[in-house]
Specification:
The chain has about 250 residues and is α+β, with helices and mostly antiparallel strands. It has helices spanning about 45, 60-65, 80-90, 95-110, 125-140, 160-165, 170-185, 190-195, 225-245, and strands at about 10, 15-20, 35, 40, 50, 55-60, 90-95, 145, 150-155, 205, 220. α5 (about 125-140) crosses α6.
């Protein structure tokens, strides 16, 4: 098994994508990321801890928005079943990481939209929502195989640590962002939104934390992935990788 301290990365050239929103310039603190306004460039050789399988399953976001986001759960079909069927029917394999970033942004912009700032009880700031949108966009590049092996892993897998480097969050703020991302704000309607929206990235969000937010991040995994193997491998490597990400903020 490849260890965290021995990156295994395919040969690949840097790639760029122009996004609707200007990204925070301080993403340049993260190895391999360059930001110029709305243009985000990633150098795989510098960014990834592992980049073994640069291919992804995507579903057209406009199709997801038009035909899936408003899908009603019934006593015969859960939203997870609907999302799985939609991915099977419309998923396409791509080897274009820029397209993955573009789709990741569309998903993130929907899930972490600014209207939540005014929702009572959330106590979320626009700055925190922006951090979540940007980190989630880049996290779309991660990949886990069906056997649970972590094949593509970059610093944004551990987004609470990465956003602390970029946005200057302290540990408490990092844990808060972690809770907001993984918990769906403890709201079933938003959890349902997450399930359906992540169909655009070919799967469902599975986080690396257990009972509490412990900065382990997460990834969109294909339905049917071996979760026991996924968690075992993540636990064996994550602390080293998290330390490497945190160190990026001290250079």
């Amino acid at each position: 098994m490849t260890t965290a301290t021995t990156p295994r990365t395919t040969e690949s050239k840097p790639f760029s994508v122009d996004l609707p929103e200007a990204f925070t310039a301080e993403w340049s603190r993260i190895d391999g990321i360059t930001v110029e306004g709305r243009t985000v460039t990633v150098d795989p050789g510098q960014y990834f801890f592992r980049y073994e399988n640069p291919s992804w399953v995507l579903v057209d976001w406009d199709l997801v928005r038009a035909e899936l986001l408003d899908a009603a759960e019934t006593s015969e079909q859960a939203v997870e079943q609907r999302a799985l069927q939609f991915v099977k029917a419309h998923g396409q394999i791509t080897d274009d990481p820029a397209q993955v970033l573009a789709t990741g942004y569309q998903v993130a912009a929907y899930l972490f939209r600014d209207e939540y700032v005014s929702v009572g009880g959330l106590e979320i700031t626009g700055w925190e929502l922006k951090a979540l949108r940007e980190a989630t966009t880049i996290m779309a590049l991660n990949r886990v195989e069906l056997d649970g092996h972590l094949s593509n892993v970059g610093p944004c897998w551990f987004f609470p640590v990465a956003t602390s480097v970029v946005f200057g969050f302290d540990e408490a703020e990092g844990r808060r962002v972690d809770e907001l991302y993984h918990g769906g704000w403890f709201n079933e309607a938003r959890r349902r939104e997450s399930v359906l929206a992540h169909a655009a990235l070919g799967g469902r969000l599975v986080h690396g934390c257990q009972a509490s937010a412990d900065m382990a991040g997460g990834c969109v995994l294909a339905y049917g992935t071996d979760l026991a193997s996924f968690r075992a491998e993540l636990d064996s490597v994550r602390h080293d990788w998290m330390d490497q990400v945190a160190a990026m903020g001290h250079r």
